[in-house]
Amino acid sequence: TSFGFKEVREEEKSKLVGNVFSSVASNYDLMNDLMSIGLHRLWKDRLVTKLGPFPGMKHLDVAGGTGDIAFRVLESIRSVSRRAMQDGFAETEEQTQIYICDINPNMLNIGKKRAIERGFAEDRYLHWVEGDAEALSFEDESMDGYTIGFGIRNVTHIEKALAEAYRVLKRGGRFLCLELSHVEFPVFKQLYDYYSFSVIPAVGELVAGDRESYQYLVESIRRFPNQDAFGRMIVDAGFQKVEYENLVGGVVAIHSGLKL
Ligand code: SAM
């Protein structure tokens, strides 16, 4: 039956995603920089600027194993706190809680290691949680912000992940998603296709010794809904003021929505 077929495919997808990230984990930082020519750093900065972190906030970064986004949220809160202290405002930084949730313990371990390297080791604000975007362990209406960076594309049921994002956010909370998206400009699109179908798998083989995983990553970008279709899914999950911003002509898009 078509139902049986779908089930097998979903099982395979989960297994594939697991394998990909176990294999990718150890080369993760290097590959990110190589594949995006360092741009992922700017994209993550932009995501956090849009979030507007504040001292005392409860934030959840899903699929955030490496801590890249969480560290930026924390740094941003600290710079706000420093300014607030200079202005003589009460110190609310103490209540800040940033949760990093990822399905893959290898990725979380990279993140924890990096936290030590960056001097965040003893940080009481960072919490590393192994978990699935589709079934979060957090309480209803417990978060001020939710981010997911280069993660939702790998989730088996995107609608479930969006429903969970909506559930855990407080009223007024913001959902932000950074994801590789779709390029439409003709010549740029051809260049980008060449880059992703030829260059990325080759670099994956050369650097990580794993062409297949990077081939899978490229294909998963193609299969992901385009900017407008994904925006509609966010609306369907209940979010309001849904919008997106394209970066580098749509190579990457940041979608945002509010739970009102
Ligand atoms: N957010 C980080 C960044 O931008 O550098 C990591 C992105 S990495 C490309 C994708 C991450 O999604 C991996 O760490 C993987 O383990 C995680 N992931 C995949 N499926 C997931 C799921 N269902 N729930 C939570 N995390 C998931």
Automatic annotation (TrEMBL):
GO terms for molecular function: 2-methoxy-6-polyprenyl-1,4-benzoquinol methyltransferase activity. Pathway: Cofactor biosynthesis; ubiquinone biosynthesis. It is found in: Mitochondrion inner membrane. Pfam families: Ubie_methyltran (PF01209). One of its GO terms (biological process) is ubiquinone biosynthetic process. SUPFAM superfamilies: S-adenosyl-L-methionine-dependent methyltransferases (SSF53335). GO terms for cellular component: extrinsic component of mitochondrial inner membrane. Methyltransferase required for the conversion of 2-polyprenyl-6-methoxy-1,4-benzoquinol (DDMQH2) to 2-polyprenyl-3-methyl-6-methoxy-1,4-benzoquinol (DMQH2). Component of a multi-subunit COQ enzyme complex, composed of at least COQ3, COQ4, COQ5, COQ6, COQ7 and COQ9. Interacts with PYURF; the interaction is direct, stabilizes COQ5 protein and associates PYURF with COQ enzyme complex. This is 2-methoxy-6-polyprenyl-1,4-benzoquinol methylase, mitochondrial. It comes from Musa acuminata subsp. malaccensis (Wild banana). The lineage of its organism: Eukaryota, Viridiplantae, Streptophyta, Embryophyta, Tracheophyta.
